[in-house]
Amino acid sequence: MDTADGQGEGTAGLVAAIALYVPEGEERAGRVSSVTTDPVAGTPLRAVVDFGSTPEGTDTGPDIEVATRVWDGPEAAGERALRGLCAERALMERRMRDPQGGDALSLGEDARWSRAELAVDGRPVEAVVLATGMCWVAAAEAEPGVLVRVYTPAPGPGPERLVRVRDAAKLEPMRGRG
């Protein structure tokens, strides 16, 4: 059922349930393209907001993607968790482009790790960065227990200033892909 603001309850509920981030100054409405929920509690564990992807016609993928993941590990997220989040997205990109290729299960010889500073709601956070010939991915702990990942196609860098979505009207209503 839609709410009075034209957004589905799902979008408004998602914004209330999990920290979603978008690039500061981005004028396009973000599209919630993926949500993973806890199978028992039904609460969101992960959500992806993308920009530049379209559900109509040929979809070449987003030009910016910002993912949020609730960290539920026994200890604080560290370097390994952040690298895993970056590598996951880079590998997904490789598999989408050439699923049968010999490199579909590796980061590739051109993969380079580095660090960068992101600003999340005006607060600096240190990010792990993975750059390959296909993409630029950065991951950081945006706030305690919340990881954020920024993806753009190569060469990058992607947006380095993010703001939290507090109003569901800044996002397209959730919908399936066409």
Note down, in words, how this protein is organized.
The protein contains two helices and ten strands; from the N terminus they run H-E-E-E-E-H-E-E-E-E-E-E. The protein has 178 residues and is of the alpha+beta class. A ten-stranded mixed beta sheet has the order 1-9-5-6-7-8-4-3-2-10, sandwiched between helices. A hairpin with a 2-residue loop joins strand 7 (135-143) and strand 8. The chain is globular, with a radius of gyration of 16 Å. The two termini are 20 Å apart. The model is unreliable at 1-8 (pLDDT under 50).
Mean pLDDT across every amino acid position: 85
Strand content: 35-45%
Radius of gyration: 16 Å
Largest sheet: 10 strands, mixed
Q: What overall form do the CA principal axes indicate?
A: globular
N-to-C order of helices and strands: HEEEEHEEEEEE
Number of strands: 10
How far the N terminus sits from the C terminus, by CA atoms, comes to: 20 Å
Structural class: alpha+beta
Q: Which regions have little confidence, pLDDT < 50, spanning 5+ residues?
A: 1-8
Topology summary:
Elements: H1 9-17, E1 21-23, E2 30-37, E3 44-51, E4 64-70, H2 79-97, E5 112-120, E6 123-131, E7 135-143, E8 146-153, E9 161-164, E10 171-172
Parallel strand pairs: 2-10, 5-9
Antiparallel strand pairs: 1-9, 2-3, 3-4, 4-8, 5-6, 6-7, 7-8
